[in-house]
Amino acid sequence: MQQSASTTEFGYNSKIEGEVVVTRVDAALNWFRKNSLWPMPMGLACCAIELMAVGASRFDIARFGSEVMRFSPRQSDVMIVAGTVTYKMALAVKRIYDQMAEPKWVIAMGACASTGGMYRSYAVLQGVDNIIPVDVYVAGCPPRPEALLDALIKLQNKVGHEAVFGPKHKAA
Amino acid sequence: MAALDFANQLKAKFGDLLSEPVEFRGEITLKVSDAERITEVCEFAKKSLGFNMLLDISSIDNYGEDPRWTIVYELYHMEQKSHLRLKTEVSEEKSESPTITTVWRTADWHEREIYDMMGVRFRGHPDLRRILMWDGYPYFPLRKDFPLAGKPTDLPEVAFTRPAPLEGGPFVTVPGGKDALAREPRVRIPQTESVATISRLERRDDVRAAHEPDAPQPNTAMPKQ
Q1: What chain B residue is nearest to A121 in terms of C-alpha separation?
Q2: How far is residue B29's CA from residue B46's CA, in Å, rounded to a whole number?
Q3: Searching chain B, which residue's CA lies closest to the CA of residue A89?
Q4: Is A162 exposed, middle or buried (0-12, 13-18, 19+ CB in 10 A)?
């Protein structure tokens, strides 16, 4: 995989450096961030069942440092929108997203969260990206747990390449 | 005791208020001609006949016909394991029917749902609020003249809606088609008498234009009713 030199130089050679690790601060910060993305499980429908499976022992999201499901937006990094976002729930989802501290990311899990899915209806928001910015979309109805883990890995790669300083990593 | 016996007992008690029991696929239906007396009928069915469970209340929108609403009550007799269905009709102008929460308390949420989706009010209901949509939502989305895509609304700090993208829509359902294919929601303008009224009320020039005799008709894929 191609890593950009500016933000991902992170290595340790004991023969050269002894007990000192030399790196760049943004590379280190991104490394910290991407390996402990604490999810805000926004479980709204059946996708939440697959999300629970991802958290359980068989698929074990802890392998990627995301096992700490925080039901408080103040303590979480990535909102996993798992399920159908109805208009009745939409502003609540946005409010929870707004309460999350920067930096924050969003995974739209499944067809409903990504596009409204099969619900072309008066009651369902046609994709959560109408109200909050989404980083990774996961296809499926519901997606397999592996698909969500793949999305998490893709998000980790994205986080690893983001600029820490300068303008905010993305517009709110 | 079979449901038909219960139906006949009801009929004997209320006479002309009820229609003759109709049997269809083993299910007995009685029509109550005056919706104002539904509570009385239900009270008798529960207290004297023993229909101790109300399974469901549903509503039908007979769009373009009068009376527009049909309210359907599904009763169940737990000892005798028999079902009974009561139907009553409510006109669009009135859109109101007495509550039966005084008979079965479970009617509370069923009636709220009908109010939410169809806009039929239940007089005497203890807490007639919307149950699925939020308070302040201005439409009744299960009515036949409500487009499947929805309509734009905005209630700041509570909720908003936007019409869903529908290829070729808005889709409309029309009751009373002769088969499932004809009843299926599709792109069409309801072929009913009240279209002129509805299009005027909702300022739908496109609907009215579609009903001008000279205007090109949309592809309804359905024979006129």
Answers
A1: B149
A2: 16
A3: B159
A4: middle
Specify whether the CB–CB gap between B60 and B88 falls below 8 A: no
Query: Residue B46 to residues A54, A60, B80, B138, B192: CA-CA distances in angstroms?
Result: 50, 54, 13, 36, 39
**Which is nearest to B116 in space by CA: B100, B106, B127?**
B127
HSE (CB half, 13 Å, CA atoms) of B14?
24
3-class SS at A169?
A: coil
* Residues paired with residue A124 on neighbouring β-strands, in sequence order: A86
Q: Measured between alpha carbons, how far is B57 from B43 in angstroms, rounded to an integer?
A: 15
- Output the DSSP codes for A18-34: TT---B-HHHHHHHHHH
Determine contact, residues A89/A61, Cβ cutoff 8 Å: no
Buried b (16+ CB within 10 A) or exposed e, B131-142: bebbeebebbbb
Per-residue model confidence as pLDDT tens for chain B (225 residues): 588 889 999 999 998 899 988 988 889 999 999 999 999 999 999 999 999 999 999 999 988 888 899 999 999 999 989 999 999 999 988 889 999 999 999 999 999 999 999 999 999 999 999 999 998 888 899 988 887 778 888 888 888 888 887 766 666 666 666 777 777 776 665 555 555 555 555 555 555 555 555 544 444 444 444
Angle at B72 between CA B140 and CA B43, to 5 degrees: 120
Query: Tokens in use for A2?
Result: 């191609």
Question: Rounded CA gap, B51 and B76, in Å?
Answer: 5
User: With contact defined as beta carbons under 8 Å apart, do B42 and B100 qualify?
Assistant: yes
- The reply to whether A127 touches chain B by the CB within 8 Å rule is no
Contacts of B164 in chain A (CB under 8 A): 116, 119-122, 124, 126
Residues of A in contact with B150 (CB under 8 A): 121-123
Contact B150 A122 (CB under 8 A): yes
Structural domains in chain B plus CATH codes: 2-123 (3.30.460.80), 167-217 (no CATH)
Given CB atoms, is A128 within the 8 Å cutoff of chain B?
A: no
CB B186 within 8 A of CB B169: no
Q: Does A120 sit within 8 Å of B149, measured CB to CB?
A: yes
Q: Is B164 on the interface with A (CB under 8 A)?
A: yes
